[in-house]
Amino acid sequence: MVVNAIEFHEVSKTFPKASKPSVYNTTLTIEEGTFVTILGTSGSGKTTLLKMVNRIHEPSSGKIFVQGEDVSKVSVTELRRKIGYVIQQIGLFPHMTIEENIATVPKILKWDSKKIKERVEFLLELVHLPPNEFLKRYPRQLSGGQQQRVGIARAMASDPDIMLMDEPFGAIDAITRSSLQDELISIQKRLKKTILFVTHDINEALKLGDKIIVMDQGKVQQYDTPLNILMNPANEFVSRLVSSEDIFQLLGMLQADSVMVPLSQVSMNNTKTVKHNDHLKKVLTLLLNSDIDGVIVEDDKKNPIGAITFEQLKLNNKIKQAVFPL
């Protein structure tokens, strides 16, 4: 049964003295365990939408439900303890060690010291910061990327089912940013957290999201899978957003499992295999440079879970124009 982690029911937000809403009447459903990116330019309403979930901003109208519960009926403190929150500025306490920073919420929740220690060490391992090296360090002794990893670990300390992330990698250099993106994808797949992630970067939105909310001027323009947004934009705004980038490069942000079809739907003789999280650009390169009918997509345990064929991709007009122009 599909469970909804977050539901927006005709939610809007107008700030005092504002001439128009920051977010117009919005109805959306975020399913449990999905990674949803919110894509939009500055002033599009994406951060306001995010911050209404944990009541940093209160809606002007409508209702928001978290795991079936009306957030307006829950105390703000109780609500925020159940939701992880990561921002670009990180906000680590400079006078506390990394261990103490991550342990902040578990201590408030009165976890016993043994459980807290185990949780902190587990999370540091999860974000690839060896505990024996980092437990006793202070934030000033870490790079920006390392600090952001600690910020993610701290947000996950109480083991929340839902994570809100507001452009957390915006101030990080490109190489570190890509590494952190990969890390976050791995964590989400492993722990099945529901993540709502704000970004203004289309490449980041495509790479991270199972689904993408595209916003402009306070309104949701499209809420769909990365592939559908790329190949079937809902309106002129989304079309311009997508066409402003090189389609072939954008395909490098999509994973093989986002375009595969069931094995039962295809008949192939000569094949090669790819991992479920390999980028579609790698798949296209294989199809273009190998004498094969298609590729078999495998999961992490090397079990076949789907297929991508040469003909299947050529049927898509945008892929055909970008990759098979002749």
TrEMBL record:
Pfam families tied to this protein: ABC_tran (PF00005)
EC number: 7.6.2.9
Subcellular location per the Swiss-Prot or TrEMBL entry: Cell inner membrane
Record PROSITE patterns: ABC_TRANSPORTER_1, ABC_TRANSPORTER_2
Gene Ontology cellular component terms for the protein in this record: plasma membrane
Keyword terms: ATP-binding, CBS domain, Cell inner membrane, Cell membrane, Membrane, Nucleotide-binding, Repeat, Transport
Bilayer topology term: Peripheral membrane protein
One Gene Ontology term from the biological process aspect of the record: glycine betaine transport
ABC transporter domain boundaries: 6-242
GO molecular-function term, one example from the UniProt record: ABC-type quaternary ammonium compound transporting activity
Domain of life: Bacteria
Substrates-to-products reaction catalysed: a quaternary ammonium(out) + ATP + H2O = a quaternary ammonium(in) + ADP + phosphate + H(+)
Family the entry assigns: Belongs to the ABC transporter superfamily.
Subunit: The complex is composed of two ATP-binding proteins (OpuCA), two transmembrane proteins (OpuCB and OpuCD) and a solute-binding protein (OpuCC).
Protein name: Quaternary amine transport ATP-binding protein
Source species of the chain: Calidifontibacillus erzurumensis
